[in-house]
Amino acid sequence: MLEDGTVLAGRGFGAATDSVGELVFNTSMTGYQEILTDPSYRGQTVLLTQPHIGNYGVNHEDEESAKLWLSGLVVREACERASNFRSAMELSDYLAQHGVPGIDGVDTRMLTRAVRDRGEQRILITRDMTSTDAQLVEKVRKAPKVADVDHVLKVTTPQPYEWKKGYESPFSPPAPAKAGGKRRTIVAYDFGAKRNILRSLAACGLDVIVVPAETPAAAVLERKPDGVFLSNGPGDPAICRYAIESAKVLVQKLPVFGICLGHQILGHVFGGKTYKMKFGHHGGNQPVIDLTTGKVEITSQNHSYAIDPQSLPDGVAMTHKNLNDNTCEGLRHKELPVFSVQYHPEAAPGPHDALYLFKRFVELLDGVSV
C-alpha cells in the first residue's frame, strides 16, 4: 500500500511482520546482499528492478554491516532456492533472521514508474487482509518520513574502534602501501559507514580509527591523526548539525575526504544547501564525469539528497557531475586540502571505476597536490 492509495497484492517472504518505509528503487543487476546491509537504507523500503532476486543466496563475506537496515524489500520474483557455491543461506531466511519483511509477485516496473513520475513516497508492506484500504492508507500517512528522524544516530557505532582488514579479493588496492614508508593514521566518522569503504582505506596502508557520529572535533584532534574521513549514511544531512559543526573545525586543521552523506555535510560546512531529490540515485550504473580529468566513470550510488551547486561559495569547486541529470557529484575546496564525492568509489555492489579517489586521499595525506 502506497500513501497515494495504490494497492498491490503479492506473496510475502522473509519476516512475517509489517513495515513502513520510504520506497526507493535500485537498478543494480547484482549485489542485493550489499544493498540489504547498507546502513544508508535505514528508513527506506527498497524495490529492486532486477526481476530475479535471491538466485545466488547470501553469505557473511558480502555483508556491508552487521545487520539489515532497510524497512522492507519489494521484488518481482524471489528465488526460493539459491544456486551458488558461496551461498550459506536462502534470501527469505536471511530477511526473516533480521526481522525484515519482503513481498514478491508484484509489478515492480509499474512501481518504479510510479516513483519516477510522482517521487519517493511511503509504502506499507502488510499481511493485514481485514482492514480497509482507507485504514491502511491512514496508517502509511501517519508514519514518520525519513526527514523526520535522525537515522545516523541509529546506525553509528556506539564506541570507537580500529579497522585493520583490507581487501580479501585478488584485485590490487588503489594506493598500495609503500615499503618502509610512514604509515598514516586517519579518523573515520561512522555515519553509517560501509565495510568496503573501511577495507579500501586500510588497503591503502592507512591505520583507520572509526569513531561515533557525535564525536566532537576536539576529541578527534587529541588523537593527532593525519587526516579525517566522513562516511556515507542515511537520512537528511541538514539534521546532522553535530557532524557539520565538528567538520567545520576539522577542515581547518587536517585533510578531509567525504563520501555520500560526508560529501553533503561538507557542502553544509562551506555554506551550501542540500535538497531532496524527486527519486534519488540508487544503482551501480550512474555515469559521472570527472571535471578535472574529463574522464567518465560508471559509478555506484545511493542517495536521495544532493547539494545545490548554485549555493556554494566561490572558494569551492564542483569536480564531478552526473551525466544523467547534471547534479553535483563531487567538490573540492580551492585552498584547503578537502574534497568529496556524492557516489561510492568503493562500490560493493558496483563497478570499481572510481577507486582512484582513495589514492587521491593518500596523496593528500602525503602533502601531494591533487
Which helices and strands occur, and which strands form pairs?
Blueprint lengths: L10 E4 L4 E8 L5 H5 L7 E5 L3 E2 L18 E3 L2 E2 L12 H7 L3 E4 L3 H11 L3 E4 L7 H10 L9 H4 L5 E3 L20 E7 L4 H9 L2 E7 L4 H6 L4 E4 L10 H10 L5 E4 L1 H9 L3 E18 L5 E13 L7 E7 L5 E6 L4 E4 L14 H10 L5
Parallel strand pairs: 2-3, 3-5, 4-6, 5-7, 10-11, 10-12, 12-13, 13-18
Antiparallel strand pairs: 1-7, 2-8, 9-11, 14-15, 14-16, 16-17, 17-18
Helix pairs in contact: 8-9
Give a short summary of the structure.
It is built from 10 helices and 18 strands. The protein has helices at residues 32-36, 91-97, 108-118, 133-142, 152-155, 195-203, 217-222, 241-250, 261-269, 356-365; strands at 11-14, 19-26, 44-48, 52-53, 72-74, 77-78, 101-104, 122-125, 161-163, 184-190, 206-212, 227-230, 256-259, 273-290, 296-308, 316-322, 328-333, 338-341. The strands form 3 sheets. Strands 9-11-10-12-13-18-17-16-14-15 form a 10-stranded mixed beta sheet, with helices on both faces. Strands 1-7-5-3-2-8 form a 6-stranded mixed beta sheet. A two-stranded parallel ribbon has the order 4-6.
